Amino acid sequence: MDGLFDIYNIIFLVLAVAIFLRLRSVLGRRTGNERPPVDYRARETGDAAVASGDNVVTLPGARGDGPAAPATAEDAAERLAKVAPEGSTLNEQLRAVIAADPSFDPDGFVGGARAAYEMIVTAFAAGDRKTLKSLLSKEVFDSFAAAIGEREARGEKTESTFVGIDKAEIVDATLKGATAQITIRFRSELISLTRSKDGEIVDGDPNKVVEVIDVWTFAREVTSRDPNWKLVATESAE
User: Fold this and answer.
1) Closest alpha carbon to 23 in 50, 52, 58, 51
2) What class, spelled out in words, does domain 31-236 have in CATH?
3) Looking at the predicted structure, is the pLDDT value of residue 3 above 60?
4) SS3 readout for the chain
5) Cα Rg for the chain, rounded, in angstroms?
6) Is 125 in contact with 221 (CB distance < 8 Å)?
């Protein structure tokens, strides 16, 4: 029995480590060396400090693990080739961001942004203000929270099934002082409906998959030790 007990302990330990590493790769993490959150959030977005980083998505290219090794010209060219052709305006814009933050990986950033997009869309449908506040700038959060409040005041509930993201691509990048802004165009598929307080469907179709195109802009101060990007602008596209 002791041998069997030890085997189960090992299996549970391996599973626990695997789950921890998976969560750590998606959720934000802090190293203890970050500046107080108010330093950059209050200045750039006017947001209050977030008490916990558990729901903060750390997009690749904004690591809080200390200074990154300078990227070689070959490394930078390889990174850019995956998302922007040589000589394009977007290529030049991303070069400026990489020059300010050598750890920034455009291709990896898109992967992280996809996770953030799904998390935000799901949280909005569920009315999860706590998760939204940790991912959005103050202005965007206020807008989302107002929409949720209006929905709640009517007694309505939204049901949303995230089918998947067909495509996500960087369409613009700017560096304003020490603040980098990356704009991504998402094409996703959702099943979404809204029910009244009586349970009747007032919007949407539970049997219809709808294509949604959103253009979202994320921002971060590249000189900050805080690794987290925030959603600072949203718009829908046809």
Assistant:
1) 58
2) alpha beta
3) no
4) CHHHHHHHHHHHHHHHHHHHHHHHHHECCCCCCCCCCHHHHHHHCCCCCCCCCCCCECCCCCCCCCCCCCCCHHHHHHHHHCCCCCCCHHHHHHHHHHHHCCCCCHHHHHHHHHHHHHHHHHHHHHCCHHHHHHHECHHHHHHHHHHHHHHHHCCCEEEEEEEEEEEEEEEEEEEECCEEEEEEEEEEEEEEEEECCCCCEEEECCCCCEEEEEEEEEEEECCCCCCCCEEEEEEECC
5) 20
6) no
Find out whether 203 and 160 touch, Cβ atoms under 8 Å: no
Domain spans of the chain, in order of start: 31-236
pLDDT at 139: 95
* pTM confidence score: 0.69
Q: Which two tokens stand for residue 13?
A: 């330990």
pLDDT in tens, 171-212: 999 999 999 999 999 999 999 989 999 999 999 999 999 999
